[in-house]
Amino acid sequence: MSKTKAWLLCALLVAACGQPAAAPDKLKIGFVINFMSHEWYQNISKSATARAAELDVELIVADANLDVAAQISKAENLLAQGVEVLILSPVDAKAMGPIVRQAKAAGTKVITESNPVSEAVSYVGIDNYAGGVKAGEWFASYAAEKGLDPKILIVGFPNFEDCRQRVDGFKDALATSGLTHEIIQEVDGQGLKEKAFKVAQDALTANPQINVIYGINDDSTTGGMAAYKAAGLDEAALTAIGFGFEGTVGQTALTGDTPYAAALAMFPNFVGSALIDAAVQLSRGEQLPPHYETPTIVVTRDNISRFYDTSTEPPFALKVDAVRALMQQ
Length: 329
Fold this sequence. Notes:
With 329 residues, this protein is α/β, with parallel strands linked by helices. It has helices at 3-17, 39-54, 68-80, 97-105, 128-146, 161-177, 193-206, 218-230, 248-255, 268-283, 304-307, 320-325; strands at 28-33, 58-63, 85-88, 109-113, 122-125, 151-156, 182-188, 212-215, 239-244, 260-265, 291-293, 297-300, 308-309, 317-318.
């Protein structure tokens, strides 16, 4: 187990055993989210809000709506309100340097989610490249077992470093595995189902031999699946692999009668809680590692019930203890 994971596990266990000592003034945390319309951020926001209430912390959430200028403006507004810790899900990590420096000058500590930002105290979230490797290793084993001849379409989002890492990890794992495969095309679905549908539709028209779709999030994968179906191709011949498993979209696809075979689960509800835990640790003057890593695992129809209560319709309730146990591996 890595030192970072061990450190995070200890922090989570301490938090689970009892509430932090009451401070004279309630801790105030600001959180500027990248794109609240996306299910990933909705679930992170819900879990962060719930964790803040549990710890009696004031959390102010703002939505940048994929606008860099809006993110900077809303972060400045939160600094003016006197937040002690500022959380950023960067629209553009490279553009966040000035606001991080402004926060430092005001005595406000900054942590990030989704992508690290230079000069921020810590990045809270997954190792995206390692997650891509896990997805690639799973697929290489699956393809060998099923005797597949993979002709792969990758639906990416190259504008974001974390999404590029998910693709790089996947491709590197396939190359290392020795599996004979061909990456037919890489397209930019911008992380949105309608965009993914359109670019996948064009790719499938030109390359109907594609029989594998790998997407950098649930919308990318399911958008590609929808394009495959709309093209009249044989869905029984398709294997789809997702990344994120953000909520209802991925859960419905994986548990339904679809080609969605697996997803690299990122557990947004766990990440949201971890952001608040990290912010509280900072407010106490405790040190955080540069990467406050949260767990991932490939989820399939065979193991989903280990991490989620599938007795109801999606969205499924997370089995937090099962996710926490991944920190020990």
